[in-house]
Amino acid sequence: MSATTIANPAATSATTVAVEITTTPAMAQAVPTPQTSVQIRDSIGLRLKQLAKANTEWEQGAYKTANEGLYVLIQGSYTLYKELTDAKDENLMHKKQGLNDHLSINGMDDYTSKPLPQKIIRCVFGNRDRRRISTYNVVLRRLIAEGVDVADVPAHIAACGGVQEMSLGRKPGALTAKEKATQVKGAVQAQMLGSVKTAETDLLVNPEKHGDTFAAVLTQNPDGSFTINCIVDSKGAVNAALTAYYGAEAAKNAKKSS
After folding, report:
1. 195-223 burial, b for 16+ CB within 10 Å, e for fewer?
2. What is the pTM of this model?
3. Is-contact 215 238, C-beta < 8 A?
4. By the 8 A CB rule, do 125 and 132 touch?
5. Roughly how many angstroms between the first and final C-alpha of the chain, as a whole number?
6. Residue 93's domain spans which residues?
7. Which of residues 167, 191, 215 is at a domain's end?
């Protein structure tokens, strides 16, 4: 009797465990809670903030470093130009030949007859992006024309607003067309040469644009009057007119002071 009692519990226990394992219901997978419209909007704002922060870090880090590196390369190109135009250097002929040999060895024979700045820029920066190379060539030629000291090249380029601005011929402190227009806008609006109101101009009136500036084309008549040919609602046209006014006033003032 006792032997039977000992054997049976083990079998029963094993059977019971097996039953418990097979009969335990599977746990349901967690379903993610859908985001609300507010959360979705906020997440976009967060991503934009993160991108803006990354851009700031890039501008202050890799971008700034890359620009500084570029300015040093242009400085090196300018140094080489100075060396290859030093008439007092008894080895000048050999150095120039070394440049032409380099061009030939690297498949750039068509550049041997180009101006020296263009040769140097081509050798240093390659030919992967013709527009970029053209920009660097203009910058180097401007450094040469302005007689900038070699040591001042990086600071000079930075003061001009970078290679792109410098290639456009803008000198440090020079105003852009938009800045010129902004500078004279108040003075122009303060003066009144005349006022016109006709059935035709009434068609152009927009109550929402009271106080805004417009551009117009006028024709001078033999009797000294002006005919308004058209009125244009365009910021570009207004800025162009104001920029022209700035130039005319600057020329007038320069003439008075001379």
Report:
1. eeeeeeeeeeeeeeeeeebbbeeeeeeee
2. 0.52
3. yes
4. yes
5. 134
6. 59-167
7. 167
Residues 248, 181 within the same domain: yes
CB 135 within 8 A of CB 167: yes
Q: What is the distance between the alpha carbons of residues 76 and 96, in angstroms, rounded to a whole number?
A: 16
Tell how far CA 42 is from the center of its chain: 29
pLDDT per position as a tens digit, 1-45: 444 444 444 444 444 444 444 444 555 566 778 878 777 777 777
Task: Assess whether 161 and 195 both reside in one domain.
Answer: no
Token pair belonging to 51: 């991108």
Q: What are phi and psi of 220, to 5 degrees?
A: -80, 130
* Claim to verify: residue 136 and residue 182 sit in the same structural domain: no
Distance CA 35, CA 41 (A): 10
- Please give the backbone phi and psi of residue 231, each rounded to the nearest 5 degrees, phi first: -125, 130
Q: Render pLDDT for 69-84 as a digit per residue (tens, 0 to 9).
A: 899 999 999 999 999 9
User: Can you tell me the distance from the alpha carbon of 150 to that of 167, in angstroms, rounded to the nearest whole number?
Assistant: 18
The sign of the CA dihedral 103, 154, 138, 60 is: positive
* Cα–Cα dist 240/234, whole Å: 10
Q: Based on the domain organization, do 158 and 236 belong to the same domain? A: no
